[in-house]
């Protein structure tokens, strides 16, 4: 694992957009990491790479749901970085279908990308870290949806994020003897292209109900949490599902929206 004085050799999947891109950029601060970006959108991956300057080592276009391509891509990333200290799995999709309309194709695709893709990338990264005998850090993106119903997210997306929470704890237990830490981050609604439609549709009152602290989370805020978990300060944090959600999961019943007449 990185000592804190050396740069972290980091892979970010889904680094072409949203939270993944913010993580890649955040890790530039203080010269903390060399980064390889993996994304199925090659142009977006290259755009992030260009924003990283010297610290960006490669952009690789890849579908994380294909285990053969994942093995090749992680090997190429390890070559570009000279090893591997951390991987952050941000590649994910959300197909908007509800319980009644959900199709087998959408269900399968969501699990293939969100769950199996996260697993293939993490497994390949873990094998490399074990070979290096250095330990390392694996992070994956769960969601507030893993803890309870979030309207609009649908059964397949919700199932995939609950699966990621479980997968992180299982992998953390299995990989602890090799000093590999595994955690899931569970963001609430975050300002990214994935939530564009939702953000545009919410009134101010609805937003206050949706996120008790009154606004969506910024991708940079998730990125700062990631930077902490990757750093030596996070050395004893493993097997956790860590929420960053503006108190979204703090209420068991619908909240009364505060008004100006409240004292
Ligand atoms: N935005 C939110 O409110 C929110 C909340 C909780 C969890 N998340 C999770 O965080 C992660 C990042 O979400 P985001 O909001 O930044 O989304 P985003 O759509 O902005 O970015 C996702 C990235 O993943 C890439 N990607 C999609 N499928 C891929 C595949 N098969 N192979 C490789 N790359 C692929 C996309 O090209 C894109 O660059 C996702 O796993 C998402 O489910 C997001």
Topology:
Blueprint: E1 8-13, H1 18-26, E2 33-39, H2 42-52, E3 56-61, H3 67-81, E4 86-89, H4 104-132, E5 136-141, H5 154-175, E6 180-187, H6 196-201, H7 204-210, H8 219-230, E7 241-244
Parallel strand pairs: 1-2, 1-4, 2-3, 4-5, 5-6, 6-7
Helix pairs in contact: 1-8, 3-4, 4-5
The structure holds nicotinamide-adenine-dinucleotide.
Descriptive overview:
The protein is α/β, with parallel strands linked by helices. The protein has a single domain (8-243), classed as NAD(P)-binding Rossmann-like Domain (Rossmann fold, 3-Layer(aba) Sandwich), CATH 3.40.50.720. It contains eight helices and seven strands; from the N terminus they run E-H-E-H-E-H-E-H-E-H-E-H-H-H-E. Helix 3 (67-81) packs parallel to helix 4 and helix 4 runs parallel beside helix 5. The protein binds nicotinamide-adenine-dinucleotide. Residues 14, 16-20, 39-41, 44, 62-65, 90-94, 113, 117, 141, 143, 187, 189-190, 192-195 line the site of nicotinamide-adenine-dinucleotide. Nicotinamide-adenine-dinucleotide binds next to helix 1 and helix 4.
First-last Cα distance: 51 Å
Over all CA atoms, what is the radius of gyration? 18 Å
Strand order of the largest sheet: 3-2-1-4-5-6-7
Number of helices: 8
Largest sheet: 7 strands, parallel
Helical amount? 40-55%
CATH fold topology:
Rossmann fold
Q: State the shape.
A: globular
Total individual domains: 1
CATH architecture classification name: 3-Layer(aba) Sandwich
Question: Briefly, what CATH class?
Answer: Alpha Beta
Residue fraction in strands: 15-25%
Relevant CATH superfamily: NAD(P)-binding Rossmann-like Domain
